[in-house]
Amino acid sequence: MKILVLGAGRSAGYLIEYLAVKCKERGWEMTVCDQDFTRLQQSFKINDSVKLEPIDVTDEQKLQSIITEHGIVVSLLPPFLHIIVAKLAINCGVSVFTASYISRRHIVTGKLGPSSFNVELCSIRLLCDQSIS
Asked: Is the pTM of this model over 0.90?
């Protein structure tokens, strides 16, 4: 299994640290992409099974090539970027999990832009934040 984590900001470190341990236990690979890893490396214990790869997430072509190499994408980016990540992952047939309050309906129905896709017809998972208020 290859897991891609996008974003290494303030709260991401806890999940990255946890996933790093689980990936090492199971022999999985994990790549973390962000523009800067300084805070992550200073504040969290990240084992050698994690690959840190600098990326500009607004470069959709580069982002898509990285997504294609993985089986699961976890987006911990700012919410406005989840839409881009979700569309690319879905088009690549890769399951995506976000910490976003963006409605799953908008992604499933293709109301995010000109491209049309249907998550229900793909054999992938799409999980957005399901906060209960």
From this structure: no
Query: What are the residue ranges spanned by the domains of the chain?
Result: 2-127
Where are the strands (E) in the chain, listed by range? 2-6, 29-34, 50-54, 72-75, 95-98, 126-127
Q: Which two tokens stand for residue 124?
A: 């992938």
What Rg value do the Cα atoms of the chain yield, rounded? 14
> CA–CA distance from 73 to each of 7, 42, 66, 132, 133 (Å)?
11, 24, 10, 23, 26
Please say whether the structural domain 2-127 has been given the CATH code 3.40.50.920.
no
- pLDDT tens for 38-82 read 888 888 888 888 999 999 988 999 999 999 999 999 999 887 888
Residue 82, amino acid: H
